[in-house]
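sorry for the late reply, my laptop died twice this morning and i had to redo everyting from scratch. anyway the thing you sent over, i finally got around to it. pasting the sequence first so we're on the same page, its 349 residues, then the predicted structure underneath. double check i copied it right bc i was rushing
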Amino acid sequence: MAREIAEQPAALARTIESLRPERTALRKLAADRRMVLFVARGSSDNAAIYGRYLLEVHAGIASGLAAPSVATHYHAQLDLSEALVVCVSQSGETQEIVETQAWAAERGARTVAVTNDGGSSLAGAADVALVTQAGTEIAVPATKSYTAQLAAMAVLAGALAPEPEALDRDLDQVPDEVERLITQRAGVEDAAEQLASTAEALVSGRGIVFGTALEAALKIEETCLRPVRGLSYADLRHGPIAVVDAEHVALLLSAADGPMVSGMTDLAHDLDNRGAASVIGIGGDDGFADAVDVHVAGPALPELIAPLALIVPAQLIVETLARRLGLNPDAPRGLNKVTQTDPSDDHEH
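ok and here's the structure:
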């Protein structure tokens, strides 16, 4: 896992360079489509959440997350003739995602596959395949394949925006920022120490960063075998915040700029006032850093692109925490690299 985290700057650079030429094909494919629907599971679903926010905020296109079971179990007869359906799977062989893409095409959708395997079933059946260049990923927890998917989302949203090249300069900075975060590891050890002190943890982010918060929570759960609640800022405010006490460590993620920083800073103060054992913050601005007990440096990137690097400190924390707990971060208990949702489809492991 540590080695694959370290490979992310190169993987991101390769992926961005490889996918940019697909922008013309993406614009043509989506020319008469009114909405984008994402289909994914697990870490890929968290990448899709980022894609949804970015398409709506940056490209101005209505987007949503589709439930694969609507296709695979309910066989719903939806009219998707105005939809672009984006199916996301690292392996390109998760059966329900492959089946959902075929169902969407039969219902009139145009399809885009986001996968790390150009020879996969998903890539072969899509109208356009965005093949990420993460290289083979051996550790079960997705790291470089996940950030490569985020790069694909940024390219997709850029392609469908009024100015397709508007995000290019910021995207070009991502590999260097990821390299800096990996090298400096600012705050990583202290954050892992705090998380190791209690089994009670919650993770929160908002807006563009929401998918990153869910991915950080998933990584802690699957790699460190800790029950973690990953919640949006809004959902946390609407009740669950009441459970916070001296047994809880809160991990908050924020971009360095944008409309959500002040709210995340207020949340850090509120959690501290409620007696949380510790409040850890990744990213944010100076005010956010001052509001948390342990600050972990985030990327110097604008909010729209920040998630490509903001997850990296969380990956470093999780890998460190797993080893501190005496666990193997490369092969968490009970997990496999390719996951099939239904046991009857679980034939690839």
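The mean pLDDT is 94.
thats about all i looked at so far, will dig more tmrw
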